[in-house]
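Field: sequence (string)
Field: structure_tokens (string)

Example rows 1 and 2, in order.
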Amino acid sequence: MSGAAKQPASVSTFQRAVYFLRLGRPLHLLGGFLFNGLGVSIAYYLGAEINWTIALWCQAAITATQLMTHYSNDYFDQDADAATVTPTRWAGGSRVLPDGLIHPRAALAAALVCCGVALGATAVLVVTVSAPLLTLALLLLALALAWSYSSPPLWLNRRGLGEITGALLVPGLTTLLGFQVQAGRLAAQPLLAVVPLCCFQFAMLLSVNFPDAVGDARVGKQTLVVIFGPARSGRLFVGALALAYLLLPLLVLAGLPGQVALVVLLTSPIAAWQAWRIRRGAATDSAAWDALGFWSIGLLMAAALLEAVVFVALTVI
């Protein structure tokens, strides 16, 4: 999927570093910190003694995996990114490779280096945590899914599986990792807490695929938006948001603290507004795509942050 980028111009070392920073999409790394923190807060709520050294090594593995995904995604999605004429701040890749700012092979090399860093952090965790085999299994699963999202041999995001993979991986598996390395086990609480977040992540990935749909279809990249079309994908977006809130009573019955469910419910005005915008045609309105992506990300991050705060508050109050 390479070969679509322009040849990079001669630039200074500083400018090249700036391009590499842009290629890594640093703003997107904040989610890894937030979901790891949510896992730590749930472990604290359930009585675990927090080991901050382990938390930092877990974050190192998470951030390196995120960076690997960003670099590999831009490398293997060069054709789709070059075909996208309506990129936003949240969709269409970093634009570094299509604009010829860095040689594509440098992005692939960076992805492989980040993979090595993630494996190194994993090795440290395995010899440090109380349940090393479970930690190893979760980290290797996360690394495999992150690579496979847009890279060979599975190319999940080109086969209609990218959205569900991202929904399970980003808020789901990341939070479980943050919890497990502290608690030494899995438990129901983190699984219950991430259900609405996975719904929000799924909707968010749909929202950032709307701007890319024409370019993706042109190169045969079968995201759900390409498969179902904007109208049905818009309904899927609204359905995912609704499901997040409709499941809250069942999650409380299953053991999620009511206070956590309540703060998730407090985000519903944002979701309702997003759903209203979709019903008004935002899925096909290029002028609405940037804000749609921004508020979809904001909804996810706000819900996760509120959950983490409440779990800590329930412990210390």
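Row 2 begins here:
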Amino acid sequence: MKLRTIFTIGAAIAAVACGKAPQSESLTQWVDMRIGTGGHGHVFMGANVPFGAVQLGPTSIPQTWDWCSGYHVSDTTVIGFSHTHLSGTGIGDLFDVTVMPVIGEVTYARGTEDEPQSGLWSYFSHADEVARPGYYRTRLLRYGIDAELTATNRVGLHRYTFPTSDEAAVVIDLENGGCWDKATETRMEAEGDRVVTGYRYSTGWAKDQKIYFAAEFSKPFTSFELKGENNMYGRASFATTEGEELLLKVAISPVSVENAKENLAAELPDWDFEATAQAADAAWNDELGRVRIETADSSARRIFYTALYHTMIVPSTFCDVNGDYRGADGKTYNAEGAHIYTTFSLWDTYRAAQPLMTLIHPDRMQDIAATMVDIYKQQGKLPVWHLVGNETDCMVGNPGICALADAVLKGYVPNREEAYEALKASAMVPERGMDLRMQYGYIPCDLYNEAVAFDLEYAIADWSVAQVARELGKEEDYAYFLDRSKSYRHLFDPETHFLRGRDSKGGWRTPFDPFSAIHRGDDYCEGNAWQYTWLVPHDVEGLIECFGSKEAFTAKLDSLFTVSSELAGAASPDISGLIGQYAHGNEPSHHVLYFYTMIGQSWKTADKVREVLTTLYHDQPDGLSGNEDAGQMSAWYILSSLGMYQVEPAGGRYFFGSPLFDRAELKVRDGLLTIVAHNNSAENRYIQSVRFNGEEYDKPCIDFESLARGGVLEFEMGSEPKVWYEL
């Protein structure tokens, strides 16, 4: 059976053959939730609303890398339906408060696939699955139970259709979490004969996670018993008739059971499953409607709207309806009218996901930036990779600096002085190699692992601080951080023309192989010298100077795409989506194609952007070339298909590439931004000229403020390379 046939994505797809999507058209029909569930995409499968606290979906038996989201299309096991999941990440966690309907007595454990009775798990068939934004359905083959899921922001709603049985039950599982997550303390109790409350504390990627819940059934249970070792399972028993529907509402809170109850009462006071699913669909349509595209290519339309959907799963809500949330210091705070977020995969998302969000989600950006500043106040530095109130310190550099600086420079932070304090203080924390960098001017490879990767990301963050310092008139700070942002020059080897590890005595690491990558064991992070030599998006002119000439720089950049794609050493599977040694499957390469536009060879950007858009993204489960990474892989597609990309980490210069679609309309801060590509086709992929609001435009990029004000951006396309701008 072909995988294309196993998910319902809406018969209306066939009805829209070409042309502009009408304003009333349902855009959720174009979201194909299979995309990214295969390969190494790691995307979430299940029901949620945009940026919701709840991601309610199936969790499978396997706990290995490709199951970081709890689901992989190659697998057909399910241990239950969990209320929290990650999407696209390279590390697994969460899968909290898992619910499984069963028939008869079961073994209260995760179980193993080679022993069918070893746990309460069941097989399902992809042929029985229906998945669309805000709704999921499957059939549990072991029990003959149909399971349907939908959600509000903080509440998951289950509907289970049972066969006739005196031994029907719904099991709440607090033992099993995501991948490396382990429960440290749990509690569950019945309140009457329809409500169960409790909490789950756990440690994993997030070292100190706490989640509270309140669950309410649509009919009384006949009994409620704690089961399993350490009483981490709760069994609510029922007698059911053939085709009887049992509903369950589960609200979560990061603060308390009482807050979970309040969330439940506020968001889902009734039992109307269809209305809740329709409301979720409407919420997704509203968010997807921020960008409307015109194309005759239905596959590209599916890829686009699925990508847009993937950019709106996180950051996720991390406050209760009353404003309470758990701070990075473990204390309870109140947002006082603001909205608090979590799941900040910033090493990934500062590159494209946030620049996209600043364009189409101006209503959320102030709260996202404020959340980052609050995290700084609570833990003494801006977030690196923040998850449910925990700093994981995952990945290299100071990406929270880039994200906050970008928000400041784009006008989303009212208190710029407070934000600057957070930026500067975070850039000066003497940890994770920064103390060595301040001592030596770079991070010596004999004193710190992944030294080149850390140093380059710190340089990018320093440049971002410098831009805010200049904006605020802090000239001394501007000069200091701008100088520090050039630390990459210490790592440039003029003989090999690579950025490479340098030791504390000034010598180069030997032996040296630019194709070699040793995962978590060399000078780079999920990459090699070929990929990291270009990680200077903030100072392309300075990097060209290192090469000695633009010609030498260009020749080396050209060779990036033509050398062998073979990798030496114990390389990470993250190094994927290879064109030569350009690795689109991982974030450090994402800006590189736009260097050509920056040096006056925009036709090469057009060629390579179109190649990536049409060969490394497709509408199948393995349609992503690497981890989706919390929206970043998808955001690259969105921005690039619209014809632009923010190369520099902060400030908002979007460099032109090659628009894929004939027309797009974006709801931006001050109105509507219309992007039109005249005479556009696979052959006519080269920009011939640009007009903005009717005037000739002779620059290779456009600034954020111009885009955010709205207007009409027109590209005239042609089949011959042409440079239409002045550098």
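free_text_note (row 2): Confidence is low (pLDDT under 50) at residues 1-18.
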